[in-house]
From TrEMBL:
InterPro entries: DUF58 (IPR002881)
Residues in DUF58 domain copies: 204-277
Organism in which the protein naturally occurs: Cellulomonas algicola
Protein name, UniProt field: DUF58 domain-containing protein
Residue stretches spanning the membrane: 9-28, 34-52
Amino acid sequence: MGLRPTRRGWALGLGGVALGLLGVGLGAVDLVRIGTLVVLLVVGACVLVGMLDPGRGRHRLAVARDVQPNPVHAGEHARVDVRIKASDPAARVRLAGLRFSEQAATELSGGRPLRARVQRSPQQVTVSYQVDAARRGRWQLGPLVVTRGDPFGVARSSATLGDHAEVVVWPAVVPLPTASDVLVGEPDRVALGARTPSTDDASLRDYREGDDLRRVHWRSSARRGALMVRSDERAGMRPVSVLLDLPAKLTALEWTISLAASMALAMLDGGHPVRLVGGRAGTPSTFHQARTGPTARTALLDSTVDLEAPRTSDEAESHLLDAAHLLETTDAGGEIVLAVLGPLGASARAALAHVADDAQGWAVVRADGASPAHEREAQHTVHALRRAGWRACTVSPGEDIVGCWLRLLGSAR
């Protein structure tokens, strides 16, 4: 707790001391008494304010903070309700006369003071305000700062109440059409597990990560010593991996993650098992199943919150190579890979070329137009991916995400 006299308190205290000294010098008892009373007033006010510290003792106040919605998407608003409760009469005395202010990360407040609405009752005070989620990440609210003054305005105390709360901000996402008719070609629908009726309901294939365990054919699996699943229309949709190659520039980073998250959600809504791959070396990835509904969307978006820009180009390439290796070692056969990439070096192009041997690859390549050399590198990457069997196109960071998606789908024609 911070306890200090106000400017008025300092003025009165120093004035009282000066008046007392003057009375002693002049031998005026009344002046000494007045000076002593003024000093005692300041001291007593400080003691009174200190005794009513709302955050200590048996009668301390309880703080509950509710943020809705939480998580929230970047660019959206969230409402915060902070409730300060008094549990007994002594706590209600401490609650009366308090002034409140809330602390918030710059990414939630925009660096401006929060404008709050305060509702008071004898047992509870509710402080309500709105925050604007400016950027993806995990940002703090609180703790609550309370101040109290005495009736004469000569002393003031400040204290913090409660703990801080965390607001999770997901990337901004855009609804995208799920063009399964473009992404899944008719000749390989049955073989790769798309939702097309099969004439042979008993046809089997090897189990792949993301397949519904309810489709496992246990008798054949026991006979062959490996999990086998039925590949008819009910066996599920082709798994989708969304591959991320993160840039160092902040604006391009957030746009890249928004595009990747929008792609992933579109495929999830279309019934595909989806996972995010890349961004950080060694990050485990699991498929999120469409049948789990909102839980799958939440888990997928949660996996984007802590993604960070690489510190160097070598680190970015290392992450991408690790992700390509993960795709190869988890049996990507029949998988759809949607990639958001920057211009690639020779080793990264070679690694992604191998991915296209077993998976169907679709890639957008960032060309930010910063220099003609960067544009040429992006075009060279697109041509190299196409030669390896990918469908690929160039995009500019910051452009319309729906337009990028439709251009990528159009690259198959």
